[in-house]
Automatic annotation (TrEMBL):
UniProt-listed Gene3D superfamilies: Cytochrome P450
Keyword Membrane: yes
Organism for this UniProt entry: Gossypium australe
Localization of this protein: Membrane
Annotated SUPFAM superfamilies: Cytochrome P450
Cofactor(s) of this protein: heme
This protein's name: Cytochrome P450 71D10-like
Pfam families, alphabetized: p450
Coiled coil: none
């Protein structure tokens, strides 16, 4: 469910409201993500070429990539045809989505943009923006179940802000100070991209007495920085309060807290990511009360992680919702 909420928001921004291939694309990209997240022996021994053949991984990925490419080509074609109808006055103009913006730039020819570039941008936005967001929402919810006093506080805030409307929308998100602190704390303790993206050192240098040769692949451990006792009080404790009055933020200048990275290659989707987390969480907290099945207690919830494209829960989070009486959505 969480997964389809965050994917749905990204898909709506990328393809607009009426795209008929949207769900086919989501299904195809999630299949590809699953495949790439799995363990492959050939990744560990890349020099042993026959391993790649035996695993069949390369063939599978190539096949899926081709299918994926066909779906995006179709989506681009559909957009082009609709834009032509709009221009000739046959159809009323719709609000632009990401594909429209890219096609407009291509038409204006300000700088060369081929269809393959448009396809790459779409793959990038989905690949980088969907799973990171759904993973974070799932961890935030898990942490709130594990720490029920946090859930209570966050839920009270969301219901105070949106109670008069009986529903959640973007207008009140800026008032959700506590929920924002919950999201920051989730990023600190469970960053979805714990080692950021790899860098290559293009000049030999010395850091803390260690010689780093040119061309070394450098991995930055954002997960360890977020739990470093030199910077954080009781780092293993999930405590959103630490962000309520502090000035530490994830904009890439506080190096102890870099869930979106830092520097030139920092996540460019940060301003899209924030509402894409706040909105689903606010909805889930406003419309439902949540509990674990079979009388299970929060402290019994398994919080093991599994490493893939992002660091996710090892087991699915299974929760029982009870509709909230103040919700004006018909359940
Ligand atoms: C919870 C949400 C997200 C998290 C935690 C996250 C985290 C990250 C991180 C850690 C990086 C690598 C930065 C570095 O190594 O310094 C990254 C890169 C990137 N992110 Fe995000 N991201 C999120 C959402 C998004 C969204 C919504 C989009 C697009 C709409 C996006 C697009 C990208 C792209 C294109 C890159 C590659 C940038 C480059 O290589 O120059 N991300 N993200």
């Amino acid at each position: 469910m969480i997964f389809s909420m965050t994917y749905g928001i990204v898909a709506r921004a990328a393809f607009g409201k009426k795209c008929k291939d949207q769900q086919t694309y989501i299904d195809s990209i999630t299949e590809l993500t699953k495949l790439l997240s799995g363990f492959s022996l050939s990744d560990f021994y890349p020099s042993i070429k026959p391993l790649q053949l035996f695993s069949g991984m390369k063939t599978k990925v190539e096949k899926m990539h081709k299918e994926n490419d066909k779906i995006i080509a179709n989506i681009i074609k559909e957009h082009r045809e609709r834009r032509a109808r709009e221009k000739s006055g046959q159809e009323e103009a719709e609000q632009e989505d990401l594909v429209d913006v890219l096609l407009r730039i291509q038409e204006q020819n300000e700088f060369p943009l081929a269809d393959k570039n448009i396809k790459s941008v779409i793959v990038d936005v989905f690949g980088a923006g969907s799973e990171t967001s759904s993973t974070t929402v799932e961890w935030a919810l898990s942490e709130m179940i594990k720490n029920p006093w946090v859930m209570k506080e966050a839920q009270a805030e969301v219901r105070r802000v949106f109670g008069p409307k009986g529903n959640v929308d973007e207008t009140g998100l800026h008032e959700l100070k506590y929920l924002k602190a919950v999201i920051r704390e989730t990023f600190r303790i469970r960053p979805s991209v714990p080692l950021l993206l790899p860098r290559e050192c293009h000049q030999a240098c010395e850091i803390n007495g260690y010689h780093v040769p040119e061309k070394t692949r450098v991995l930055i451990n954002a997960w360890a920085l977020g739990r470093d006792p030199n910077y954080w009080n009781e780092p293993e404790k999930f405590n959103p309060e630490r962000f309520l009055n502090g000035s530490v933020d994830y904009t890439g200048t506080n190096y102890e807290f870099i869930p979106f990275g830092a520097g030139r290659r920092m996540c460019p989707g940060i301003t899209f990511a924030t509402p894409n987390l706040e909105l689903p969480l606010a909805h889930l907290l406003f419309h439902f009360d949540w509990k674990l099945p079979n009388g299970m207690k929060g402290e019994d919830l398994d919080m093991s992680e599994v490493f893939g494209m992002t660091v996710k829960r090892k087991t699915d989070l299974v929760l029982i919702p009870t509709p909230y009486h103040g919700s004006k959505i018909v359940h």
